[in-house]
Amino acid sequence: MKTSIIRHLFFAFTCVIPAIGNAASDAPPRPHVIVILVDDMGYGDPGCFNAESKIATPNIDRLAAEGMRFTDAHAPGPLCHMSRYGLMTGRYPFRTNVGVWPTQPLIDEGQTTIASLAKRQDYHTAMVGKWHLGFAENGYENPLPGGPVDHGFDQFFGIRASTDIPPYFYIRDDRAVQPPSNTIEANQTEGWSPIQGEFWRAGGIAPDLSLDEVLPRFTQEAIDVIEGHQRDTNAGNDQATDQRLMLYLAYPAPHTPWLPSEAFQGKSDAGLYGDFAMMVDAEIGKVIDALARTGMLDESLVIMTSDNGPVWYDEDVERFGHDSAGPLRGMKADAWEAGHRMPFIVRWPGHVQPASQSDQLVCFTDIMATLADLWDVPLGDDEGPDSFSFLSALTDDTDGDRAGDARRRTEIVMRPGSGRMMVIRKNDWKLIDGLGSGGFSKPRTIAPATDGANGQLYNLKSDLAESKNLFGRYPDLVSQLRDRMKVIQKRGHRLVQD
């Protein structure tokens, strides 16, 4: 009998849990799967990851108190479209041309996604929010192929990209609800950098969309999905009453424009950004309350994380005494840790120990293999080739560091936002194949040093802040990491490690 089946049987007989999934005692558990992805929230923003945070996040903190915090979880790329591509496909985003997203789909036709994998397990799949993975655009009065409903989702309501990237319009399934026939002028906020505050770009906007209403609209759409699914289940409509729901809720916030509602204005100690982050937390709370109200919460595996790091500068830290990056160096788009190390929480009653923590290395690409492991479904060589299951971390009574688990992730390879560098993390060591941030932080790039050093090497166990470049001290290790990185770039990472 497979290890995963034995593990599931063990928990079935030793834990008092709600009756979920199939009635047969030897079947894998089938929870609802709820993935909540926020946008540009830093590692140091939620109170459960930073006791000194100046932003109140009681709902995110509640998820952590009732679940597991991962302290070493990473986006597969430190920008919106990179991160989402890896999450959806289990593939590193450097394996495709992510730059074509404004007019072309990033996900190939027929490519497995977490949604299509769930559909194969008879889940109802829904997405609400920011897609940012491209459509085959041919006029907004026409269908928009290549989006969520063409990649495994039964239904979609959302926007094509960020709420500062025009055109701005809602999409339901594969059609614009209303085309962006109006125009909106660009906007910036005095006292903030050009890409902070109430910043958005000029462009087309649909008559039915107001930028300050997008966040609560997505919350209501998500609640409608939850309540509608529960009504159908209770009525026994069309399918068996044990059909599960996968909901992917991708909030476009606290990414700019920072537009907190009146109830949150001036309520944080971190300025306009903190106020908006508090509103995001409150919207998450409304969705969690809807799951509880329908009786679905304790039958759900809930994953909450952020797509990449924050836009928060040193002067912001000095002004507010709040470090959105926490103990990490850098910001959004960077090769440095703040660009891609994310708050990551999993709540799953009866399986995940409350108020627990795992230091296991995790990447968003791993959600696919973890779900496949949960459902005891093998992945083909071309399905999630950069995905490793972290199910053992979730179901262990300790910190998830299961000895002898050969499938456990020990490496990550990524490309930062500039596209000019590559990064490999292997155990405690991190090599950045270039000098500078590789992203938004200055200096973005630096010419090789006079001593010949042309990269950065850090030991994250002893130097999480990446303050001591050991590149010149360990040339053999640098060579080994570069060679390993090249191998992974050429082949699927999971196949290489297997």
From TrEMBL:
Domain Sulfatase N-terminal: 31-376
InterPro entries: Alkaline_phosphatase_core_sf (IPR017850), Sulfatase (IPR050738), Sulfatase_N (IPR000917)
An example molecular function term from Gene Ontology annotations: arylsulfatase activity
Keyword set, alphabetical order: Hydrolase, Signal
UniProt KW Glycoprotein keyword: no
EC code: 3.1.6.1
Pfam families recorded: Sulfatase (PF00884)
Signal peptide span: 1-23
Family according to the record: Belongs to the sulfatase family.
Protein name: Arylsulfatase
Chain's gene name: atsA_74
